[in-house]
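Course exercise 7: structure representation. Students receive a sequence record and must write out the corresponding structure in token form. The form below is the worked example handed out in class, using tRNA (guanine-N(7)-)-methyltransferase (239 residues). Read each field label carefully; the graders check that inputs and outputs are placed in the correct fields and that the protein name is recorded exactly as given.

STUDENT ID: A-19
EXERCISE PROTEIN: tRNA (guanine-N(7)-)-methyltransferase
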Amino acid sequence: MSDDQTHESGAPWRNFYGRIHGKTLNQAQKDYLVEDLDGLSPGPVTWEENPDRTLLDLATRYGGKPIWLEIGFGGGEHLVHMAKTYPDVEIIGCEPYVNGVAALLGRLRRAPEVQNASIHAGDVRDLFDVLPEGCIEKAFLNYPDPWPKKRHHRRRFVTAEHLEPLHRVLKPAAEFRVATDIPDYVRQTMEEVPQAGFEWLAEGPEDWRKPWADWPSTRYEQKAIREGRTPHYMTFRKV
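STUDENT ANSWER:
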């Protein structure tokens, strides 16, 4: 790392605290990564591929379709469901956890009708660098890593480091959905997301107690309910 807080490649020095690898992948998952991942890329995102940080030409790549973004797609249940439900929308999923990426690739193999999903297997901040301003029509943050210890709360997605570039890449009046079962994550979301230029769309308690009409219950949510935690569904709009 140089004195100006950048890597030799020119990339900004960004600490990444989440897991990249989990349990050993099986052979089929390894095959998915080798055979399918490159073809699902939204374009050159990493600093190695795109050191000049040239903006992606998404209009050409996706034929002018509306583009949605899922930040941390876990095992891909929600992303595949939404891609099936809205075939005329392109959904870009970001996930640095290799096991989650492999799980999504497996789901896509088993759903060949889904042709509107793209994957960036890495840090969403690198994708933010190369997304054109105002190109995303809807964004999802579902059951993000809670980082429960107070000293780690700055690692959560709902901080200015992530919310400011998210706001930039969203279209005016774009929707940003957040689902979490962690009360303190709800608190931080309600404090920091409005400060970043979003308005909360709830008119009453049912607006955050009930999931969205097109919401598929994920394994994370089912685990939370089994363990007695209450899911919250918060909808914001870019101001």
